[in-house]
Amino acid sequence: MELVVSLEFSGGAELLFDKVKNHEVSLPARANGPWTIKHLLVWIKDNLLKERPELFVQGDTVRPGILVLINDADWELMGELNYELKSKDRIVFISTLHGG
Asked: How would CATH label the architecture of 3-95?
């Protein structure tokens, strides 16, 4: 069963995604378990990210300086990379990094 989630990028993070802030995405069913934020980050990098992946991901997580909210709650309260996505979840990525 495919999973539909809303993704939002702001605080400058949208610049890495062709300046598009909001994305509603349909994720295909996974054969080996549920979708997690960790899987979602790989999917975002492979399917949505347009430039400079090093400004969004570091290793298998988001780069320090990017705040992640899951349904308006800090992802640290939700299990971070291990959070299991549910249909209609809203995941927000806010960059707190600003060049000068």
From this structure: Roll (3.10)
